[in-house]
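Hi there,

I know you've been waiting on this one. I reran it after we fixed the sequence typo, so this is the corrected version. Both the input and the resulting structure follow.
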Amino acid sequence: MPNNIPNALTWARIIMIPFFVGILYLPDHVLAPHWQNLIACVTFVVAAVTDWFDGYLARAWGQTSAFGAFLDPVADKLMVCAALVILVQLERCDAIVAFVIIGREITISALREWMAKIGAAKSVAVSFVGKLKTAAQMTAIPMLLYRDDLFGLPILKIGTVLIFVAAALTVWSMAYYLRRAAPELMRHS
């Protein structure tokens, strides 16, 4: 396991998850709901920025590693899944939407691992629709976490629309990856 700043940032994201979840479970007399929402939102945004930053640093400094390539998407998926489960419990996200997004993440992760084992990883490389899905999702989740109106904008409503857009893009991107992998799936079944 290489010890470097990009991997340390990835580990920091994983360590943020219990803090992020714990904030939202504090009793109201310890921390008012507005502050819980704000701190959870900021924590999620910091994790998202850290995700971009650790990848950038790893490439810029030549510190990419097989371990970092494994751990980075795991950290991302853990944070997103934790956020979605919490949002379902808080009744800010539909359970079916969370299931679609989490199910896609598990399916595509397994597909990518299998495709890498058979030497066909390039056929399931990140696509433009996958990037759109991630952008919609990573914009929607902080909005749903924050919840309150901001500068007169109905943040919760905007976040709700965006999470449904993310779910639709999730299905689209999963179909895209499965279609790209289909020849290999048929060949090795």
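Quick highlight: The chain has a mean pLDDT of 91.

Best,
R. S.
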